[in-house]
TrEMBL record:
GO terms for molecular function: cysteine-type peptidase activity. GO terms for biological process: proteolysis. The keyword Phosphoprotein does not apply. It comes from Peribacillus asahii. This is NlpC/P60 family protein. Pfam families: NLPC_P60 (PF00877). Residues 29-148 form the NlpC/P60 domain.
């Protein structure tokens, strides 16, 4: 009888741990997807140095704004954002991609990976727009990604 009770309790504990892990994954997927949707809703907004609102965004302003709408507080600059999150080598939707003038310098640009080898960002030349990870300008400047 005691053996059946212990087995039953272990089953319940195992099941509840699995449910909790799945809820955490679902929450992460949800806020990443929603942050991407917020950024996409501002496609075409002009670049504004220091901009943090739909009237104009710089790169980190767009990322901070999109994630802020999901209750995630991020620092103001790309360099400060780079200090947050978990470093990843395999990109997933919602990961933050960081770029620098050269591999040894601190990040000066940040974007959100949207899947299909594309990211959304605010660039000084095109404002809020998509770019390919293989883009000849951005690819050599890529220094890594973080998952928030």
């Amino acid at each position: 009888m005691l053996k059946k009770i212990i087995v039953g309790l272990l089953f319940i504990v195992t099941l509840s741990i699995g449910i909790t892990l799945n809820e955490d994954k679902a929450e992460a997927a949800t806020y990443h997807t929603k942050a991407i949707s917020v950024a996409k809703s501002h496609l075409g907004v002009k670049y504004k140095w220091g901009g943090i609102s739909p009237s104009g965004f710089d790169c980190s302003g767009l990322v901070k704004y999109a994630y802020g709408k999901q209750g995630k507080t991020l620092p103001r600059t790309a360099a400060e954002m780079y200090k947050k999150g978990k470093k990843v080598s395999s990109l997933q939707k919602g990961d933050l991609m960081f770029f620098a003038p050269n591999k040894a310098s601190r990040p000066t640009h940040v974007a959100i990976y949207v899947g299909d080898n594309q990211f959304i960002h605010s660039s000084s030349s095109k404002g809020v727009s998509y770019a390919k990870t293989s883009n000849s300008y951005w690819k050599p400047r890529y220094i890594g990604a973080k998952r928030i």
